[in-house]
Design a protein that fits this description.
The protein is an alpha/beta fold. It has three domains: 5-156 and 306-375, D-Maltodextrin-Binding Protein, domain 2, CATH 3.40.190.10; 160-200 and 249-302, Periplasmic binding protein-like II (D-Maltodextrin-Binding Protein, domain 2); 201-245 and 381-420, no CATH class. Helix content is 44%, strand content 16%. It has 18 helices and 15 strands. It has helices spanning 5-25, 30-33, 55-71, 86-95, 110-116, 137-141, 165-171, 179-189, 203-210, 228-242, 258-263, 276-283, 319-329, 332-339, 349-355, 364-368, 382-397, 403-419, and strands at residues 44-50, 75-81, 102-106, 144-145, 148-149, 152-158, 160-164, 195-198, 218-219, 222-223, 247-248, 267-272, 289-292, 304-312, 374-375. Strands 1, 2, 3, 6, 14 and 15 form a six-stranded mixed beta sheet that branches. The protein has a five-stranded mixed beta sheet with strand order 11-8-12-7-13. β4 and β5 (148-149) form a beta hairpin. α1 (5-25) crosses α4 and α17 runs antiparallel to α18 (403-419).
Length: 420
């Protein structure tokens, strides 16, 4: 996980040159929206920065941008692919006054970057035709602060239960729908060097379970994961690994992640996102599997969502053209092209329905979870909180000490870092 020290530097720097940004962005003055009129007959170049993807995703993005340029002949899009240390590069460029006009922003990083003032609020540009209500609500809210919208989500994935049909059938068990049934199923499925559950023991994947008993992992922008409610929510994972011996971390059996342990049939069940579907199709096409919504806890549904938005640089002098690009990419037409192959799920409900993902045999469970998902974004200190949680949780997962003890130490360290 990335260090927070760089972000602290960014915040201080923003205070020093904040007046410059305000001068460039002009707050909400109407005149600033027209400083680069796209109907003047002159070409406007808008830079778009993001990270790379697989060849299919790159082709889809290229097609979407070509469609945009054909509809907006006065706007050229310069795509900049940042292959390594994306956020560090973006922050450095923003500080240096060389930031892109429009760029990707992960929800995990959004609260801290929005707090610095370098992201342009978009509400003044939105028209009724843009149809903001079409976005899945939790995904949109991840980029809203104090009633202002700073980005529109371009795609997402929730988590779903991936289960091996053959292994479940041979064991004579149904797809588990509750956490109790899930634990029992994992026990039954564990035999002959195969495990019931391939688990990712990290906060990003277990946040939904940590809060399933009503606890808050983050409270008042500080770590709160040592609370009884959170400990109780996570305890079943510890017991499945150390008591039942039915859960295993992928690297314990010589693989790298959940999709691989599942594809090699070393685990009958994993909890993964949409990214696992094309991976399994390409790498393990013979594995017969299904997906389902995550098991309920205390009768309640929950899942995680991971989403990325397009945002606008507050210092750009090309706000009108930048909005034209941003609104097309997150509009119905652009989003349909970008998500058409299913590598990413559309954040607009209408697009998901048009493409049939809501009724898709494998993706339907992921789409169903979007309205009630908890987005992986919880205030500006989540990176610090996550680092400390992950560092200490493993000691409990490996059976070296009680979970409560490990999380108390992690929480104390996290909050010391935040206070300092």
């Amino acid at each position: 996980m990335k260090s927070k020290k760089f972000l602290a530097t960014l915040s201080l720097t923003t205070m020093l040159f904040g007046s410059i940004l305000v001068g460039c962005s002009g707050g909400e003055k109407e005149t600033d929206k027209g400083d680069n009129k796209t109907d003047s007959g002159e070409k406007v170049e808008v830079t778009l920065a993001g990270w790379g993807g697989n060849p299919t995703e790159e082709k889809l993005l290229k097609q979407t941008l070509e469609d945009f340029e054909s509809l907006h002949p006065n706007i050229d899009v310069k795509l900049e692919v940042i292959t390594e240390q994306y956020m560090d590069v973006i922050k450095t460029r923003l500080i240096g006054g060389e930031g892109p006009d429009v760029f990707y922003l992960d929800a995990f990083e959004a609260p801290a970057l929005i707090e610095t003032g370098v992201i342009q609020p978009l509400d003044e540009y939105v028209t009724e035709e843009f149809d903001v209500k079409d976005f899945e609500k939790p995904l949109l809210e991840a980029f809203q602060v104090d009633g202002k919208t700073y980005g529109f989500p371009k795609d997402y994935s929730t988590l779903a239960l991936f289960y091996n049909k053959k292994m479940l059938d041979e064991a004579g068990i149904e797809v588990p729908t509750t956490i109790e049934d899930f634990r029992e199923a994992a026990k039954t499925l564990t035999k002959n060097d195969k495990y019931g559950f391939g688990v990712a023991p990290e906060l990003a994947r277990m946040y939904w379970l940590a809060q399933s008993n009503g606890g808050d992992v983050v409270k008042d922008d500080k770590a709160n994961f040592a609370s009884k409610e959170v400990v109780d929510g996570l305890q079943p994972i510890i017991e499945m690994h150390n008591v039942d011996k039915s859960a295993v971390e992928p690297k314990e059996v010589g693989v790298t992640w959940g999709g691989e342990i599942f594809g090699q049939e070393k685990a009958a069940m994993v909890i993964e996102g949409n990214w696992a579907i094309p991976f399994l199709a390409d790498t393990f096409p013979d594995v017969e599997y299904g997906t389902a919504e995550l098991p309920t806890v205390n009768g309640k549904k929950s899942t995680m969502a991971y989403t990325v938005a397009y945002v606008m640089n507050a210092a750009t002098e090309k706000k009108e053209a930048s909005w034209e690009l941003l609104s097309y990419l997150t509009g119905k037409e652009g989003m349909e092209t970008w998500t058409s192959k299913g590598y990413a799920l559309p954040t607009r409900k209408s697009v998901a329905e048009k493409l049939g993902f809501n009724n898709d045999e494998l993706r339907g469970a992921l789409v169903d979870g979007a309205p009630y998902a908890t987005v992986w974004a919880e205030g500006p200190n989540l990176p610090i909180i996550t680092n400390n949680f992950n560092n200490q949780f493993m000691s409990a997962f490996l059976g070296d000490r009680p979970l409560e003890e490990a999380l108390k130490e992690a929480q104390k360290q996290a909050n010391n870092e935040i206070s300092n």
